[in-house]
Amino acid sequence: MTLFTKSICWHSSIKMFVLVCFLFMGSFMAFAQSAYEGEGEDRINVAWAYYGRGNGLSVLYDHGFSNLISAGAGVEFYFEDSERETSFFGLVDLHLKEVLGLPERLDLYPGAEIGSFAGSFDIYPYLGISFAISEKFGLFTEIGERGTVGVYFNF
């Protein structure tokens, strides 16, 4: 497959995924809760890493320390052709939902991942947005040095 063909497939996949997400979110809006509860919130994020260091799977744990700050740890597994990469990192997010007066089910957050990526220490900043579907479940995406889109589960 050529680079051009991969690019077309990637863009078509993203467009379809975004369309399905919006349809899914629209069907559950009446039942939505808060996108970020703040202090004491524990969350697991599971996402597809669709660009940056390759295609991969991202799994994160995030804990809310205040209405503004959350931090956690994560692991990402990348699969690109015959190459494999595993990254381990800490993360910190600054939640702007209250500061910006966003709707309860929406949160905008800049953040950074700090850790071992392909065997070297790096810091990767990003901007994320999350949308609560229910009290325990929601959708999110993060865009920066790499991009992810996935689901989160509160517990």
How would you sum up this structure, described in words?
It is a single chain. This protein is of the alpha+beta class. The chain has one domain: Porin (Beta Barrel). 19% of the residues lie in helices and 55% in strands. It has two helices and eight strands, in the order H-E-E-E-E-H-E-E-E-E. It is globular.
Write the SSE topology.
Elements: H1 3-28, E1 42-51, E2 55-64, E3 69-80, E4 83-94, H2 97-100, E5 106-117, E6 120-132, E7 137-144, E8 147-154
Antiparallel strand pairs: 1-2, 1-8, 2-3, 3-4, 4-5, 5-6, 6-7, 7-8
What is the annotated CATH architecture?
Beta Barrel
CATH class value: Mainly Beta
**Number of H- or I-type helical stretches:** 2
Q: What portion of residues is helical? A: 10-25%
Q: Which terms would index this structure?
A:
155 residues; alpha+beta; Porin; 8-stranded antiparallel β-barrel; 2 helices; 19% helix; disordered N terminus
Summarize the structure.
The protein is α+β, with helices and mostly antiparallel strands. It contains two helices and eight strands, in the order H-E-E-E-E-H-E-E-E-E.
